[in-house]
Every structure is written in structure tokens, then in C-alpha cells.
Amino acid sequence: MGLSTRLLSFAKSMYKKYQNHVGRKIVHVESPHYNPEALVGYCKKYKPKCFCITPVNYEFLNSEYSAGMNRDQLAQFLKKLYPRMKEAGADLQLHVHVSWLPALVSKEKKRVMIEDAVRFFRNELGIVPSEIIFGWFAWDTEMEIISKDLGLKVVKWSPYIYDRWCEELL
Ligand SMILES: [Zn+2]
After folding, report:
1. Ordered domains of the chain (ranges, CATH)
2. What is the whole-number distance in angstroms between the Cα of residue 23 and the centre of ligand 1?
3. Which of 27, 51, 56, 77 is the most exposed place for a label (fewest CB within 10 A)?
4. What's the whole-model pTM score?
5. What is the 75 CA–ligand 1 centroid distance (Å)?
6. Is residue 1 predicted with pLDDT exceeding 70?
7. By three-state DSSP, how is residue 154 classified?
8. Dist. CA 101 → ligand 1 center (Å)
């Protein structure tokens, strides 16, 4: 490993340690297939607010986290898992990855994606979400207006952890 690689991995592990320490109440759920049991256990223990990925992002899950599920399979999986997390004491809200660069995405596509996530929560889980965190904390005015129309507050950055870290914190 070169020096820059080692520095980067050191910085990453320090960042994770810091987040694990101060960010336990907020979880970004975007690879729930890694260890769903740890995730449910974590919800039981910490009663966090979980910002949850929905089937609209199945391609993201496949490319980033090798989920290997089509949209329908992911929907079926989440329909079983998310109610268990809620039952365990988590507050479930939305996490949607639109784009690193929102300016390059049409307003129509933004609306379709955010509405899709809300519809999944309402129709499939019976949950009316009130908050949303956008992937990479990348959003623009259009997305803020669309969210507001749908009754969603856009949540800004504060310390959080990823769902795939949960097993280490049980
Ligand atoms: Zn994310």
C-alpha cells in the first residue's frame, strides 16, 4: 500500500469510529441484505431513526452493494424487513438516491423517484413518512419543493452510521 492509500484508509477508519460513537441514533439503510438480523437487533437496542432505501433504488443497491435483486424481489424483501425494524422500535423515514449531480436530472424524474419512495412506504408498509435524506446529501431547490409538496422535510447532515455497521455495535 502506498502512503496515500494508507492515509486514506486511516482517515476512513477514524471517520467510522467517530460516526459509530456519535451517530448511533441515525442509520442510513441502503444495504439491508448484508445482515438483516443485525439491523433488527440494532433497532431493538438503540431505537434509531432509520432513513431507508426503497425499491426505486434497486439499481443503486445492485451496483453499489451487489444486492442481486430485481425491483420486485427487493420490494418483497423490504416488505418483510421494514415492519420488523418498526416493531423493534425504529422510526422509519426515507432515503432516496437521486444523483450526485441533481442539476443533471430532470424535474420530472426527480418527482417520479421521490413519489415512488413515498408510495412504497404508504401502500406497502402503511407508513406515512415525514422526513427524507437524499443520497450523498445531494439535493437542489426542485427536490426541496417536490419533497415539501409530499409532506417531507429534507434532513441535513448530522452524524450517522450505515446499516452495514450495525453488527459491530450490538
Ligand atoms: Zn445513501
Report:
1. 23-169 (3.20.20.370)
2. 15
3. 77
4. 0.93
5. 17
6. no
7. strand
8. 14
